Amino acid sequence: MGVAFKLECGTCHYNSIIYEGIGFMYISLKSIASFVTDPVLKQVIGEFMEDGSVSYDAYKALYVCPQCDGIQNELYIEMQSDRSQYRRVCNCKRCGAEMEQTPIEHNVPIRLTCPDCRKSELKAMFCMDWD
Ligand SMILES: [Zn+2]
Ligand SMILES: [Zn+2]
After folding, report:
1. Which listed site, 38, 75, 103, 116, has its alpha carbon 20 to 30 Å from 89?
2. What letter does residue 117 receive in the DSSP assignment?
3. Which domain of life is it from (predicted)?
4. Which of 10, 38, 112 is nearest to 68 (CA)?
C-alpha cells in the first residue's frame, strides 16, 4: 500500500497530489506493463518477462530536479535477470536533467522548493492511503 499527499505553495497557486509507494498494480511485471505508457519501458519489461528468472522492485516515487526544482511523480522500477539488468532513470520534463528521488518521512516528503515560483517551501499534507 502507498500514501498520497498534497503539496501546496504558500506564495503562488502551485499544488499537486503525489502518490508514493506500492499499489496492487505492482504485484507482477505483467500488471506493471499493462499501465506503463512509455513505449520504451514497456518493451524493456516485455524482454525481461521472457527471461523467466526476473526479480524486480517497483514503486511510485516522488522525483525532484536538482537544477530547476521541477517535481514529477513517476514509476521507479529496477529489474534483474540472469542475462541483464535495468534501472529506470527519470529525467526532468522541463530541463532534461536527471532527477533525484526524494525521501518521505512520516508520510510527507522532506523539504521541497516550489517548482513554479521557487520562492517558498512547499507545504505537504498527508491525504490518504491508496492501493
Ligand atoms: Zn510557488
Ligand atoms: Zn529540471
Report:
1. 116
2. T
3. Bacteria
4. 112
Ligand (nearest to CA of 8): 1
Ligand 2 centre distance from Cα of residue 117 (Å): 14
Q: How far is the CA of 110 from the centre of ligand 2 (A)?
A: 18
3-state secondary structure of 41: helix
> Which residue, among 83, 75, 81, has the nearest Cα to 99 in the 3D structure?
75
Expressed in angstroms and rounded, the spacing between residue 51 Cα and the centre of ligand 1 is 46
> To which H or E segment does residue 7 belong?
strand 2-9
- Beta strands 71-80; 85-87: pairing state: antiparallel
Instruction: Give the closest ligand to the alpha carbon of residue 69.
Output: 2
pLDDT tens track for 108-128: 888 899 999 999 999 998 888
Using CB atoms within 10 Å of the CB of residue 48, give its burial: 0 to 12 exposed, 13 to 18 middle, 19+ buried: buried
Per-residue cell: 125: 499534507
pLDDT in tens, 6-27: 999 999 999 999 999 998 889 9
Could you tell me the distance, in angstroms and rounded to a whole number, from the CA of residue 56 to the centre of ligand 2? 28
